Amino acid sequence: MIKVAKFGGSSVADAEHFKKIRSIIEADPSRRFVVVSACGRRYKSDAKVTDLLYLVAAHVRYHVSCDDLLTDIGQRYFDIADELGLTYPIREEFATFAEKAKAGDLTTEELVSRGEYFTARLMAEYLGLPFLDAADVVAFHHDGTLSMTRTQALIQERGIPGGFVMPGFYGATREGRIMLLDRGGGDISGSILAKCLDAALYENWTDVSGFLSADPGVVPHPQPISRITYSEMRELSYMGASVLHEEAVFPVMEAGIPIAVKNTNRPLDPGTIISDREDYVADEPIITGVTGKRNFVAVHILKDHMSNEVGIVRRVLSIFERYRVSIEHIPSGIDSFAVVVQGEDVKDSLWSIVADIKTEVQPDGIKVVDDLALISTVGRNMSGRPGISGSLFAALGQEGISIRMIAQGSDEINIIVGVRDVDFERAIRAIYSAFSDGDHLLELKDLKRAEAASHPASVR
Ligand SMILES: Nc1ncnc2c1ncn2[C@@H]1O[C@H](COP(=O)(O)OP(=O)(O)O)[C@@H](O)[C@H]1O
Ligand SMILES: N[C@@H](CC(=O)OP(=O)(O)O)C(=O)O
């Protein structure tokens, strides 16, 4: 049996974490295929090596000295190697890298990728496994997209059957140009490897005991989620649960490989299993989780008799398309609709888009709301259970939080509300507490009991 184990930045932050990883690998002989990230934060105010490397790239671009930064980054690897007594020539290799970086001889992608490269080099020696460079097996097209077919072939051809340590987050084109995945993309590397090796399980090791039903930075002690479906996981990740990259689901989902999210610091905790299991058990929590993201923009378009005007939505959407902005939601009324997009995507183009809408669609009114946060409450068969939306909206009402937008995915696994940015955390806490008793998320039977208490006549 093959298990692919990906250890995130928080799990490889220092030598102590390397030791924990070795115990985890030694505890299970099927864990022989390891993917690692660049060193993450050791404590709250610490920096991630990847962020520091991006900073080095910016300094080099503007011809500003970055010697101190490079010294700090190097020291993190030297400390790990020294404390673990490793023989890999990290000082020499890092010095060569630093010289090339300062001389401007490296692309930003190659420079940044060295964070994962050096971790993997040290980890391979420490675990006694061969090192496999992701540049040799994770194949990119020239446009920056992944070639799964070529990656599959390369891993079959060059992958070492007994196991190896591979750096996450990067790969290369046919010509050897290093390309990066999205930030947090080490999760995707692990998922790709699991698919290509036809693994029985993809383990994603991090610093929390699995997916939690809310961000622990917003809700104190959120309940861990023991099992979720691939689509619930994607919904939670896309809407802010940063523990797993939302794209990491696709390679393993296609192959039907479950993901286990586990805590490197508490390996015996059960963690979360993500699979395609959809069967509903009556005593499971009503909701799976609450998550959210800030910085959305809604462009409201108002026009009398809009419902009779054919093609108006298409014309507005084609303006966004022209500016290469993807659309998140389109809530609509009879004579109005809004286009909701990520603020980051329109930071340079918002006012040009508004001007084009005025010229090309000639609305009666146009309003821009640029302090919108979206909160997604995720669960199974949401629309089939009327009490859920009632409880959710009542919770926000009681907190005096006004709802600026409501949307529901067609797959009925989420209800999305838009609130003002300043209300973001308060709204998440209010929704979470509406579905929890303080310690645990409520189960469906609790909701039924509450409904029966408030409508005694309807109970037979
Ligand atoms: N719903 C959630 N469940 C679990 N963790 C979450 C959630 N929302 C946000 N997080 C944060 O995600 C962090 C783990 O992700 P990340 O920092 O990318 O880990 P790694 O460095 O292991 O890849 C946790 O420390 C936690 O603060
Ligand atoms: N190191 C990269 C890739 C990654 O996946 O990191 P982490 O495992 O720490 O989320 C980043 O910071 O984006």
TrEMBL record:
It is an enzyme of class 2 (transferase). Keywords: Amino-acid biosynthesis, ATP-binding, Diaminopimelate biosynthesis, Kinase, Lysine biosynthesis, Nucleotide-binding, Transferase. Its EC number is 2.7.2.4. It catalyses: L-aspartate + ATP = 4-phospho-L-aspartate + ADP. Residues 377-449 form the ACT domain. The keyword Nucleotide-binding applies. Pfam families: AA_kinase (PF00696), ACT_9 (PF22468). Transmembrane segments: none annotated. The keyword Transmembrane does not apply. One of its GO terms (molecular function) is aspartate kinase activity. Pathway: Amino-acid biosynthesis; L-lysine biosynthesis via DAP pathway; (S)-tetrahydrodipicolinate from L-aspartate: step 1/4; Amino-acid biosynthesis; L-threonine biosynthesis; L-threonine from L-aspartate: step 1/5; Amino-acid biosynthesis; L-methionine biosynthesis via de novo pathway; L-homoserine from L-aspartate: step 1/3. NCBIfam families: asp_kinases, PRK09034.1. Belongs to the aspartokinase family. Catalyzes the phosphorylation of the beta-carboxyl group of aspartic acid with ATP to yield 4-phospho-L-aspartate, which is involved in the branched biosynthetic pathway leading to the biosynthesis of amino acids lysine, threonine, isoleucine and methionine. This is Aspartokinase. It comes from Enorma phocaeensis.
